[in-house]
């Protein structure tokens, strides 16, 4: 009888905010605060389940709309519940994506956070970690993550309330708030995060400076960390011709290229990336041209992608692991994209990564920019560049209510919490407008 499984008795959706650095990307500059939405479910056994998604009113509303579907339902029905909620949003997500939205704007993120909270509850009921409820179950005890480096804008050129320092006695907690625009700055950041977290793989967010300068930065990284696994992600800022010119001959440095180019001259991003791949012989990763199953089918038929960065937040946890299984069977590599996040998402990444079969690439995480701002009492720690996934039931997290309420109070002073990187960028370049084909500082 299903009723032997606890039922859901309450749901809270809590918008939260935390501090961020002035991280540069093709969309502009991160503002002083990042926002997320968290879901807290409680069940009739008295357990609490947690999930996290990007911020903003669209995702908050999608979460709240799911409440009547969830209350009173047995947690063992997690798959059916997730499918029902997902089904409500799929069509509007396709339309939103088709209109040029970023994946962090899609309602599927709300579905994934609810799924995480349900799996957290089910795991606690059954006495197993979430990793054991996903795909083939546990594949590894530790998940490799990468050092996600960014060029950083000069916050002192803005009146915005960026922090100048965060608590902690490692140099990284000072450096992460300082401007970083040269290869030397990027190497300094890399050295600090390697010392603090032990990373062995790096990703540099590009789409900021002229492409040649970004290639110089990854070459400088490689010179400092010979043999390290390094990638550069300009979010499709370069034309095919530029991308080939910049990346050809960089196989000694780049383990793969992430979204080096995108749609142009009537050709889709998938067609253009397939041409790039053939012309350079480099492996290609993406979180832009294969972001759902239909796009993935076309990308595969064209031979456009080697490493789909199937982030559980926009693929769902089940979908991300299904992608990892497909990659393992088809000779591709699974990886995950990320946005700024708190420690609930860190655990979501870790459990999915631990269930991914084969040899996934080191996962993205923005955690180095946020570490110290946790919402739970026992956030995962990055050590030796890895996250350990224990046998603690569910996601293994205990909410820290004081921290959650404080992050919610911070959110309340920010308005609707939608991400707007153009606003901060305009302090660096007055009148700045987003152009998906131009690095942010090239105007
Ligand atoms: O945090 O600015 C950022 C990133 O550019 C993020 O928004 C991207 O979605 O990390 C992401 C990526 O790999 O494209
Ligand atoms: Mg990317």
3D structure, described in words:
The longest helix has 21 residues, at 78-98. The model has no long low-confidence stretch (mean pLDDT 97). It is globular, with a radius of gyration of 21 Å. A hairpin with a 2-residue loop joins β13 and β14. The chain has helices at 57-65, 67-70, 78-98, 108-126, 172-175, 183-197, 211-224, 240-247, 269-280, 293-302, 312-315, 317-330, 343-355, 367-370, 401-412, 421-425; strands spanning 8-19, 24-25, 28-29, 33-43, 48-54, 142-144, 147-150, 201-205, 229-233, 254-258, 284-286, 307-308, 382-383, 386-388. Helix content is 38%, strand content 15%. It binds D-glucarate and magnesium ion (MG). The site of D-glucarate has 9 residues, from loops. It comes from Amphibiibacter pelophylacis. This is Enolase C-terminal domain-like protein.
CATH architecture of the largest domain: Alpha-Beta Barrel
- CATH topology (fold) name of the largest domain: TIM Barrel
Calculate the mean pLDDT score and round it: 97
Q: Which structural class best describes the helix and strand composition?
A: alpha/beta
Poorly predicted sequence stretches spanning 5 or more consecutive residues: none
In short:
By secondary structure, this protein is of the alpha/beta class. It is built from 16 helices and 14 strands.
List the keywords.
Enolase-like, domain 1; TIM Barrel; alpha/beta; globular; binds D-glucarate; 38% helix; 2 domains; single chain; six-stranded parallel β-sheet; binds magnesium ion; three-stranded antiparallel β-sheet; 443 residues
